Amino acid sequence: MTDQARDLLASARKALAPEENDNRLVPLIASGSAPRSVFATIAAEESRIVRSDWRSFLTIAARCTEPVSRELFAGLAGGEALALTKLDTLVTATGLDDDALRAYQPKAGCQAYPAYLAWLCLFGEPADVVVALIANFAAWGSYCASIATAMREHYGFDDEACGFFDFFATPVPETEEQAAAALQIGIDAGRQSDEAFTYGRLFQSYELMFWNTIAEDATTN
Question: In terms of pTM, does the model score above 0.90?
């Protein structure tokens, strides 16, 4: 049974959900008010983030001592690999090429998120990391859904260019099931702790830092 794990994940999503106005960039994009250049910035930052997160998930998968958690994190790594192919299309659609990506200087506020994920995957108890990730995925997915809609309605991007955001906006019930099963194993073994909510709170903060760093540049330049 995974009822205890499901309840904990639901509590984490509710407790850690960002407030409506915490993200300053997505509403600008949703209304069509953000400059088109923000998509190139997102694409350039994500070209580093996705590759980092891919390695991070493989790292924690290798640390897991039981197969359910190992398969969960390995599956997340596979998702990042697939997302990378969709990101290449977004990069091209925003007018970036290899030279532009190499010349781009990443923003500290955007790269704090993958740096923290890397720390979690190196040092966090997998059951606690599951809670933090699932809570964050809910917010990240909703942001991606809003952006994908706005890209079509306000900025004229085609379906291929929106594929990166469509991918993360689409819920994956199998991942939720795996997460609940992995978390329940951790709970039953006494390996899940209150640190999960601390991890999740910080994770959500770094997520917002990513968006708001770009928003600040977009509104001041």
Answer: yes
